[in-house]
Amino acid sequence: xxxxxxxxxxxxxxxxxxxxxxxxxxxxxxxxxxxxxxxxxxxxxxxxxxxxxxxxxxxxxxxxxxxxxxxxxxxxxxxxxxxxxxxxxxxxxxxxxxxxxxxxxxxxxxxxxxxxxxxxxxxxxxxx
Length: 128
Description:
Blueprint: H1 3-24, E1 30-34, H2 36-39, E2 48-54, H3 60-75, E3 82-88, H4 89-95, H5 102-109, E4 111-114, E5 117-121
Parallel strand pairs: 2-3
Antiparallel strand pairs: 1-2, 1-4, 4-5
Helix pairs in contact: 1-3
């Protein structure tokens, strides 16, 4: 498969995974693609890294597992490694300006999905 087709296919997979996360996450959540795909440095074998920022989360690990299952169901037979990390809005805002934190990486280089579309590519550390 040529590089252009691979990029288009990967973008479709990313969008489907992000939409699955948004559908499964509580209302008011944001989904942020971060890591190599957000930075444009992904290789063919790179995984997808998502940070889900929820209005409030009781158990981040349990919620991460639950959301990951929604991605697996949405992608069906497509084999795509996906990491889903969950945090709450307060923690995200607190850490978004602290270098070397996951929140900083996502806020600085991430692609934000909210509602039914990608709304921002980079600079996501606002308090909305």
